[in-house]
Amino acid sequence: MTTQSSKKYRRLMEKAKELFFTQGYKRVTMDEIAAEAGISKMTIYKYFSSKEDLLLEVIIQWSDQILSIIHADLDKIPTAVEKIEYMFSFGASVSKEMPFVLYKDIMESPYIIARLGEYKKKEVLVLWKNILEEGVNKGEMRPMDVDFVSHFLSDLTENIDWQRIFANPYYLNEEKGVSWLVENIYDFFKYGLLGRGKG
Questions:
Q1: Whether the Cβ atoms of residue 197 and residue 187 lie closer than 8 Å to each other
Q2: Cα 101 from Cα 21, distance rounded (Å)
Q3: What's the fold here for domain 1-47?
Q4: Beta strands in the chain, from DSSP E residues, in sequence order
Q5: CATH entry, 50-191, from 1.10.357, 3.40.50, 1.10.287, 3.40.30
Q6: Average pLDDT of the residues of the chain
Q7: Nearest to 16 by CA among 40, 2, 4, 32
Q8: What is the pTM of this model?
Q9: How far is CA 32 from CA 22, 28, 46, 57, 148, in A?
Q10: Which residue stretches of the chain have pLDDT < 70?
C-alpha cells in the first residue's frame, strides 16, 4: 500500500470499529462508514468485498490487540494455575468492551461466527498448550495429555451453539449484559458443579 492508501485504510478501520461498536452491525451502512472515514464507498470495496468482511477484519484486529495484552500479561504471571485463572477472568472482562447490540448482530451471522471460530481456535489453542505444558513441567499440575486437554479447552467454548444461546431471551438479556452470560459460562468451566465457584 502507498502511504496515502495506508492512511485511508487506517481511517477506514478506525471509523468502522467506532460505528460498529456504538451502533452494531446491522444499523450501520457502508455509506455511513465511507462518510465518517472521509473516503468513497468504492474505496472500501477495494479492500473488502462486503460489509461482513469489513466487520470480520475489525473484530480480528481488535482480537489481535487483546491477544497482545494477554501475552504480555501472561509473561508476568508466575504460575500456570494463576495463568489459567487470568485467562478466565480476562475473558469475562473483555466481554464488557463489546456492546450488546454488536454481539447480537454477530450471533445472527453464521459466516462471521464460522470465520471468527477458525481464528480464535488457532490462537487460543496455542495459549492453552503453553500454559498447560508449563504447569506440568513445573510440577504445578498433574501429568496429563497436554495436547488433548488444550484442544478440549479450546473446543469447549468454540463448540457451544452460540446462535441457539443468543436466540434464547433468558441468556440474551440486555439488562444483565453479555458479561453476565460470559462470567457464568466461565464460572462453570472453572468449577463445574461441585467446585468452590464464585458463590
A1: yes
A2: 8
A3: Arc Repressor Mutant, subunit A (1.10.10)
A4: none
A5: 1.10.357
A6: 84
A7: 32
A8: 0.75
A9: 13, 7, 17, 18, 46
A10: 1-2, 92, 156-167, 172-173, 178, 189-199
